């Protein structure tokens, strides 16, 4: 592993357009502070240094945002779809035009390498473009009707949508919620993750510049401490008709419980525990490359990251040697340093969990093939962990059950197809799974049996604006992306005209 000077101070956050760095909420077309004036600090995970602050909003601010979104709803849903689409395209163009600034803000507050942050801007923007195109195609149905009647189904926006997003993809997660909501005529209140509010606020600044009507999108920032009460104002508000959430399963369940009293529609994109299976008949080089792509993006802090890697006995040794060589060659360092592939983890809590999983694995007989430790030299205030491969992993280890959310690959050896499919499905989660095999019949069998919302077959990069992203079991429900991505923001209405 190459470690690039961890003591290097982050370069100052220099932006071509400094006005994109916002420090206020955006409610009813106005940038404003929290009503009680409270603030919440934002720090750089590469240094621990606080470099900005944002409002620490309360229920009162959330209520103001809901008032604004509710007041804007009738006008926005009546806006012709083509007009909504044009505004989305303008937003899309502005996001792309400001890629460098958005990427810098993102890397500064989240820690991901700049090259990855630029990639995330393009990825998030692709959802805005996609839903701008879908906005004009929300057709209904004419139902073959009995004589004297005309029966029809029309699609309507659900109403005010509350979007709550995590820190790991500060731009893409919120873009792929706001874009479909706006496309169908919903209005939005949003609350970004406490560690990464600045990217979301910059994105909303570009919504303002694109010229969307006042109140159509509103955003409030809040600390971890105040978030439950702030979001609770939306959960209890019967005018908020939908919650779209990406984050942990525990918080997803809380939102499902608490929104039951107003029976809101819910989309929950929750945690995963993805299996990655390599069969004896796989192309080993392609499998290693696929694993590197899917595991180490964002330092392993990705919900679709392989968490358990199963390798068939016949190629276990060959695969593990090639993998260890690739992992050992990764470059770790601060986001802005040239060539960095793995940045700091988001916070102390995150790196503590990774260290706990590795220590537990070693205690239960796992062998550290590379990495396995915190990188602390020169990294005071930051949270680096060495990219790690653990051999001889077993199901009793904590990392077999729980998302590690870091740059750690545990290798489990298996013998038969039946055994590995059973092991892969032996988890409450069901977001993504991957497998590599050159055997056509096996590909069909295994794809059919894996209990996940997404399956990568001889492919590690599965996310795309063109396809439905989402999970089953305790990874949640609802889909983002593709032509299916609008459905979660739509309600159907049946019209029955008689006496014809
Ligand atoms: P988290 O659940 O702790 O936080 C997510 C969001 O929920 C944040 O905005 C947070 O402020 C908010 N939140 C926290 N407590 C809340 C409460 N009581 N009421 C309302 N809102 C609350 O998750 P995280 O640690 O930020 O993100 C990591 C998790 O997200 C992982 O489990 C990961 O797998 C999951 N994730 C899933 C997907 C997906 O598409 N399925 C994508 C990215 C991340």
UniProtKB/TrEMBL annotation:
Q: Alphabetically list the UniProt keywords.
A: Oxidoreductase
Q: Which Pfam families match?
A: Aldedh
The chain positions of domain Aldehyde dehydrogenase read 31-494
Which Gene Ontology molecular function entries are recorded, alphabetically? Answer: succinate-semialdehyde dehydrogenase (NAD+) activity
List the GO biological process terms: gamma-aminobutyric acid catabolic process
* Record carries keyword Oxidoreductase: yes
UniProt-annotated catalytic positions? 269
Q: Which domain of life is it from?
A: Bacteria
Family affiliation: Belongs to the aldehyde dehydrogenase family.
Q: What is this protein called?
A: NAD-dependent succinate-semialdehyde dehydrogenase
Which species does the entry assign this protein to? Pigmentiphaga aceris
């Amino acid at each position: 592993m190459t470690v690039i000077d961890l003591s290097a101070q982050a370069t100052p956050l220099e932006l071509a357009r400094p006005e994109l760095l916002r420090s206020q909420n955006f409610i009813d077309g106005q940038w404003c502070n929290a009503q009680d004036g409270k603030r919440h600090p934002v720090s750089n995970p590469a240094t621990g240094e606080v470099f900005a602050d944002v409002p620490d909003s309360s229920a009162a601010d959330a209520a103001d945002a809901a008032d604004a979104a509710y007041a804007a709803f009738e006008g926005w849903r009546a806006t012709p779809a083509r007009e909504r689409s044009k505004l989305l395209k303008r937003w899309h163009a502005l996001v792309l035009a400001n890629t460098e600034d958005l990427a810098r803000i993102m890397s500064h507050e989240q820690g991901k390498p700049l090259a990855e942050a630029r990639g995330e801007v393009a990825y998030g923007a692709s959802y805005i473009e996609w839903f701008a195109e879908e906005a004009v195609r929300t057709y209904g149905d004419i139902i073959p009707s009995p004589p004297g009647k005309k029966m029809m189904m029309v699609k309507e926006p659900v109403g005010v949508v509350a979007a709550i997003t995590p820190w790991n993809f500060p731009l893409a997660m919120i873009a792929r919620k706001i874009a479909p909501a706006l496309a169908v005529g919903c209005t939005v209140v949003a609350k970004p993750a406490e560690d990464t509010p600045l990217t979301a606020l910059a994105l909303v600044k570009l919504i303002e510049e694109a010229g969307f009507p006042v109140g159509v999108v509103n955003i409030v920032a809040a600390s971890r401490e105040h978030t439950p009460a702030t979001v609770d104002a939306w959960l209890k508000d019967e005018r908020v008709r939908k919650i779209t959430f990406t984050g942990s399963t525990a918080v997803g369940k809380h939102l499902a419980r608490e929104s039951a009293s107003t029976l809101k529609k819910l989309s929950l994109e929750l945690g995963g525990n993805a299996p990655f299976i390599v069969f004896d008949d796989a192309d080993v080089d392609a499998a290693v490359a696929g694993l590197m792509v899917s595991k180490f993006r964002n330092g392993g802090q990705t919900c679709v990251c392989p968490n358990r890697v199963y390798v068939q006995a016949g190629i276990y040794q060959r695969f593990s040697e090639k993998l260890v060589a690739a992992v050992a060659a990764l470059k770790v360092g601060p986001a802005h340093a040239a060539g960095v592939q793995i940045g700091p983890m988001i916070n102390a809590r995150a790196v503590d969990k990774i260290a706990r999983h590795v220590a537990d694995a070693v205690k239960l007989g796992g062998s550290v093939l590379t990495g396995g430790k915190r990188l602390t030299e020169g990294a005071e205030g930051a949270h680096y962990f060495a990219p790690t491969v653990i051999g001889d992993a077993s199901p009793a280890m904590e990392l077999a059950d729980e998302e590690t959310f870091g740059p750690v690959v545990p290798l489990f050896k298996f013998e038969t197809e039946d055994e590995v499919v059973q092991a892969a499905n032996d988890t409450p989660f069901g977001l993504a799974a991957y497998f590599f095999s050159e055997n056509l019949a096996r590909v069909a069998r295994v794809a059919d049996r894996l209990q996940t919302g997404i399956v990568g077959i001889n492919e590690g990069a599965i996310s795309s604006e063109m396809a439905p992203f989402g999970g089953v079991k305790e990874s949640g429900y609802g889909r983002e992306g593709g032509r299916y991505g609008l459905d979660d923001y739509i309600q159907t209405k049946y019209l029955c005209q008689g006496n014809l």
